[in-house]
UniProtKB/TrEMBL annotation:
<keyword id="KW-0274">FAD</keyword>
<keyword id="KW-0676">Redox-active center</keyword>
<keyword id="KW-0472">Membrane</keyword>
<feature type="transmembrane region" description="Helical">
    <location>
        <begin position="434"/>
        <end position="455"/>
    </location>
</feature>
<feature type="domain" description="FAD/NAD(P)-binding">
    <location>
        <begin position="7"/>
        <end position="321"/>
    </location>
</feature>
<dbReference type="GO" id="GO:0016656">
    <property type="term" value="F:monodehydroascorbate reductase (NADH) activity"/>
</dbReference>
<dbReference type="Pfam" id="PF07992">
    <property type="entry name" value="Pyr_redox_2"/>
</dbReference>
<keyword id="KW-0520">NAD</keyword>
<keyword id="KW-0285">Flavoprotein</keyword>
<protein>
    <recommendedName>
        <fullName>Monodehydroascorbate reductase</fullName>
    </recommendedName>
</protein>
<keyword id="KW-0560">Oxidoreductase</keyword>
<keyword id="KW-0812">Transmembrane</keyword>
<dbReference type="InterPro" id="IPR048618">
    <property type="entry name" value="MDHAR3-like_C"/>
</dbReference>
<dbReference type="GO" id="GO:0005737">
    <property type="term" value="C:cytoplasm"/>
</dbReference>
<keyword id="KW-1133">Transmembrane helix</keyword>
<feature type="transmembrane region" description="Helical">
    <location>
        <begin position="6"/>
        <end position="24"/>
    </location>
</feature>
<dbReference type="InterPro" id="IPR023753">
    <property type="entry name" value="FAD/NAD-binding_dom"/>
</dbReference>
């Protein structure tokens, strides 16, 4: 048995939904496109799982966060795919792929062939077993990567509300889950080996603000420490977490967020890999011309970083690489992706955004006591990264713009004093400069259009 398609998207995460919408907008024919997903529901906005989905009151639930609502775009419920002639092959795992034959084989033995394949397999959560921790399959040990995981976590939070929760990991998922657990009135302990939380992005000063805020919500930190083993009861349920320093933490619920690993296993001997992912060019095309890769699994050249190959683990990259791959496939003149790296988080009443790269000298500014602060990263005299807590839409667009344009910094002390005003002023000056040059060369009407583009240049959806 087999089916044949022009285009196949392998994977049913965020990237698949955005790719599907782009295909439809570019005129894909009925019956030409197929999406294969191990999940039982169409693509949805995965960030909701660690945010709104875990709220104790008025939690987010499907269908409210099907793609592509995360970018304030059209929502794609199940009926949308049927209406546009897209085959959704859900609850299906592909066990093998043959790039040479352009063929995928499912665990049921069905073969699906394609002319163009988009790999959107994303990543999988690292398990404690990857680090030598055994007996971690207890009923109250949770990971958070898909809807099934989220439903299980919600059930356990409701069952053990008021009890003790231990979060293993101090990164993105660990921080968001800890906030959700505390909001659900659990007593939360966070365990991680680093000197401070979110160490891959935060500076010690930024981390200190968030750690202090979490402590005010009852969260306890066990830093420079790690899980050694579990103390389980006779039924196999974890009743305590034992740390390497000998500390015993009572646990009704354990949430593990220790990183992810790209799902490249089907293609490791067939496509070129780099940075742990599938290496692609600026059009998201792999070493095989008929295969593209997007989202967490793709390692692509980032123009902002001098075309250095990066693999970026965030929803914004998944959305934009997916759309660009389809544009490159359908239009053939899409050019190379010009992507500004962007990540964000919302916990409790806090909300931060970061653009660019956190290399070079860091300059903090603002009022850390009130939660209105930010930071710039300066490398070779220009802004290469910017972080802002508590900014509004215009503020966030401004910091994105100065990073995108690599604004020059002549005086570090003045930059620290100006803080956010540096970005706001620079972004306005850029628009005015484009308007002035455009008026001189092309006339007022076209000049206004160019200035409008310049003002929006670098803007990212949230």
């Amino acid at each position: 048995m087999g089916r044949d398609f022009v285009y196949v998207i392998l994977g049913g995460g965020v990237a698949a939904g955005y790719a599907a919408l782009e295909f439809v907008r570019r005129g894909v024919g009925r019956g030409e496109l197929c999406i294969i997903s191990e999940e039982s529901v169409p693509p949805y906005e995965r960030p909701a799982l660690s945010k709104g989905y875990l709220l104790p009151e008025a939690p987010a639930r499907l269908p409210t966060f099907y793609t592509c609502v995360g970018a304030n775009d059209e929502q794609l419920p199940p009926i949308w795919y049927k209406e546009h002639g897209i085959d959704l092959v859900l609850g299906t795992r592909v066990k093998s792929a043959n790039v040479q034959l352009k063929q995928l084989t499912t665990t049921t033995g069905e073969t699906i062939t394609y002319k163009i394949l988009i790999i959107a397999t994303g990543a999988r959560a690292l398990k404690l077993e990857n680090f030598g921790i055994s007996e971690s399959d207890a009923e109250n040990v949770c990971y958070l990567w898909n809807l099934t995981d989220a439903n299980r976590l919600v059930g356990l939070m409701q069952e053990y509300r008021g009890g003790n929760a231990v979060v293993i990991g101090g990164g993105y998922i660990g921080m968001e889950c800890a906030a959700a657990l505390a909001t659900n009135r659990m007593k939360v302990a966070m365990v991680f080996p680093d000197a401070y939380c979110m160490s891959r992005l935060f500076t010690p000063k930024i981390a200190d603000f968030y750690e202090s805020y979490y402590k005010s919500k009852g969260v306890i930190f066990f830093k420079r420490n790690a899980l050694a083993s579990f103390d389980n009861d006779l039924k196999g349920k974890v009743k305590a977490v034992i740390l390497k320093d000998g500390t015993h933490l009572p646990a009704d619920l354990v949430v593990v967020g220790i990183g992810i690993r790209p799902n490249t296993n089907l293609f490791e001997d067939q496509l070129q890999l780099e940075k742990g992912g599938i290496k692609v060019n600026g059009q998201m095309q792999s070493s095989d011309p008929s295969v593209y890769a997007v989202g967490d699994v793709a390692a692509f050249p980032v123009k902002q970083f001098g075309n250095e190959i990066r693999r970026l683990e965030h929803v914004d990259a998944a959305r934009k690489t997916a759309k660009h791959a389809v544009a490159a496939i359908m239009a053939r003149d899409a050019g190379d992706l010009d992507y500004l790296p962007f990540i964000y988080s919302r916990v409790f009443t806090l909300s931060w955004q970061f653009y660019g790269d956190n290399v070079g000298r860091v300059v903090h500014y603002g009022d850390f006591s009130s939660g209105n602060f930010g930071a710039y990263w300066i490398d070779k005299g220009v802004v290469v990264g910017a972080f802002l807590e508590g900014g509004n839409k215009g503020d966030n667009e401004a910091i994105a713009k100065v990073v995108r344009l690599k604004a020059t910094v002549n005086d570090i002390a003045e930059l620290q004093r100006a803080g956010l005003e540096f970005a706001l002023c620079k972004s306005q000056l850029v628009a005015k400069r484009y308007l002035r040059y455009a008026i001189a060369g092309v006339g007022v009407a076209l000049a206004i259009s160019i200035a409008y583009f310049a003002y929006g240049y670098g803007k990212s959806d949230v």
